[in-house]
Amino acid sequence: MSHSSSSSAAAPVRITSAELLMVRLEPQTVRTDAIQAFVAQETPILRLRMSDGSEGVGYSYTIGTGGSSVAALLVDHLLPRLMGQDPERLEAIWRDLLFSTHATAVGAITSLALAAIDTALWDRRARVQGLPLWKLAGGAQNSVPVYTTEGGWLQLPASALVEQTLAAREAGFAGAKIKVGKPHLSEDVARIGAVRQAVGSGFELMVDANQAFSRSEALRRARALGEMQLAWLEEPLPADDLAGHQELCAHAPMPIAVGESLYSPGQFADVLQARAAHIVQVDVARVGGITPWLAVAHMAQCMNVSVCPHFLMELHVSLSCAVPNASWVEYIPQLDRIAKSRLRIENGRAHAPDTPGLGIEWDWDAISTLALQRWQVAAR
């Protein structure tokens, strides 16, 4: 006996339109390091809409240059190719878009553009399923220790560093990062030494050289800072000096952290295979989105290497809680002017939000006011 149904199968969900807004956010404090100044955060915010009425919001960033190039790649090439696709096929979409721009990959502009799309698709998936991102992506832990980088900039004198770091400890942070790369190592030693003496041994200190050193100078400064009980020395060498980082990892007296200037899972694979990092600082925007971020985090997990992501705390808190080997979240508030939600910190730990999606409550009125440009792309 056969049965028939008058109802037809539901039409497949497809991506139907996209809205891209470019917002420029000025830093609230002066931020200089050994090689550059943080001029402004150019923030492309992408809103994808689906045929079933669902939507997802993603974003990316630069620190002052390249925002227009990211927008052009999205509007001219990636978003038109995205229209009509099944939003649940995240891996297929990511690979298709990567290979469609093969002549410009691997590179920062392509990865930053891919990240805006991929984070929007993950946001939509999590919202549809009614899950916060950290549970959807693994749910390994609901909080992660948090350190601050909102102080510690290179232009500050030692007295200001001490004052800021003591204030950070009192505010409940579990650690603080300080920039190094003064003209002579004695200056770095004096600055970090003053902070360590002030905060004692129970508070974690990280230092960041922002790729400023040669191999010999990196090793020299690492040894000079060896008695400071540092949690890590970050980006001591140019990011593509694989052999140099490998050598430094073998001889430095503190862990070496690398990754904010790497732009693909393959680059992280090279670093991990070469044992050229003790800590990987994979950045969800610079690596191309949540899909590749999770690939890097799990690759590091399989090699017993910690993940301490760079910047974007509003998104990285959820990703860090998704995996078991994330050991820190970096506090740099940068979305406060365009988001109503705030990072929840208790007892030195950042807690992942429980709202469905990325966990960022966007302030669309503020975004609309601050948007320098906007673009619309729709399926034909």
How would you characterize the overall build of this protein?
With 380 residues, this protein is of the alpha/beta class. It has 2 domains: 15-130 and 363-378, Enolase-like, N-terminal domain (Enolase-like, domain 1); 134-351, Enolase-like C-terminal domain (TIM Barrel), CATH 3.20.20. The protein contains 12 helices and 14 strands. Strands 4, 5, 6, 7, 8, 9, 10, 11, 12 and 13 form a 10-stranded mixed sheet that branches. α2 (90-100) packs antiparallel against α3 (108-129) and α9 (265-273) runs parallel beside α10. It is globular, with a radius of gyration of 21 Å. The N and C termini lie far apart (44 Å). Residues 158-255 form the Mandelate racemase/muconate lactonizing enzyme C-terminal domain. Pfam families: MR_MLE_C (PF13378), MR_MLE_N (PF02746). Keywords: Magnesium, Metal-binding. Its cofactor is Mg(2+). This is Mandelate racemase/muconate lactonizing enzyme family protein.
> Could you give a short account of the major beta sheet?
10 strands, mixed
Instruction: Give me the count of strands.
Output: 14
SS content category? alpha/beta
- Mean of residue pLDDT? 95
Succession of helices and strands? EEEHHHHEHEHEHEHEHEHEHEEEHE
Rg from Cα: 21 Å
What is the overall number of helices? 12
For this structure, the CATH topology of the largest domain is: TIM Barrel
InterPro entries: Enolase-like_C_sf, Enolase-like_N, Enolase_C-like, Mandel_Rmase/mucon_lact_enz_CS, Mandelate_racemase_C, Mandelate_racemase_N_dom, RHMD-like
Organism: Roseateles rivi
Cofactor: Mg(2+)
Pfam families: MR_MLE_C (PF13378), MR_MLE_N (PF02746)
